[in-house]
Amino acid sequence: MIEKIIDILKEIYDPEIPINIYDLGLVREINIDEDKITVRLIFTANKGCTLADMIAIQAKYKISKEFPNYKVSVMSDYNVKWNLSYATNEGRTMLEEIYGKETVQSLENVTIEDIIRPKFRVENLDPKSYMAEIIDRRYKEFKNWYERHRIL
Predict the structure, then answer these.
(1) CA torsion sign, 138 to 117 to 27 to 12?
(2) How far apart are CA 63 and CA 40, in angstroms?
(3) How far apart are CA 92 and CA 25, in angstroms?
(4) How far is CA 11 from the centre of its chain?
(5) Model confidence pLDDT, tens digit, residues 20-66
(6) Residue 70, class by beta-carbon neighbours within 10 Å (0-12 exposed, 13-18 middle, 19+ buried)?
(7) What is the pTM of this model?
(8) DSSP, res 49
(9) How crowded is residue 140: how many other Cβ atoms within 10 Å of its Cβ?
(10) Residue 111 DSSP class
(11) What residues contact 127, with CB distance under 8 A and at least 6 apart?
């Protein structure tokens, strides 16, 4: 059963790094009780990961679909910082193929958060407000375009 859960988690990819969450080392714990499956996840950018909820929801949905008789709980652990040692050998190989061996070796003694420049980090982002602004802006652009190109 645990092998099947691992296979499911290998189908879920980090949206910013094209490697599955299991091989990347984001899955820190899988527990199976009588009628409950619990998975604990961490994230490469820890608290700065804006897509953490999406990854956790995907994991919960896919595991629940495969094991409908179990209560599935996926916990996001923001207290543990990801580091390269969490990646599987396959994950490390994938990182090296994508980013180069030297770049991956430079991650050995640091975390992703150590590398991310604070000026690029988005603080206090409200995703709903942000998406509402984007949709409103695109609607206005389309409306203006439509008015300029109206045939009748």
Answers:
(1) positive
(2) 13
(3) 9
(4) 12
(5) 999 999 999 999 999 999 999 998 877 667 778 888 999 999 999 99
(6) middle
(7) 0.69
(8) -
(9) 10
(10) B
(11) 50
What is the per-residue pLDDT across 89-119, written as a single tens digit (0 to 9) for each? 999 999 888 888 888 887 776 665 555 444 4
Write the single-letter amino acid at 2.
I
Strands 27-32 and 36-41: antiparallel
Q: Give the pair of three-digit tokens for residue 128.
A: 């709903």
55: left (phi over 0), alpha (psi -120 to 50) or beta: alpha
How many CB atoms lie under 10 A from the CB of residue 103?
12
> Which 3 state secondary structure label does DSSP give 74?
strand
Residue length of the chain: 152
Structure tokens, 1: 């059963």
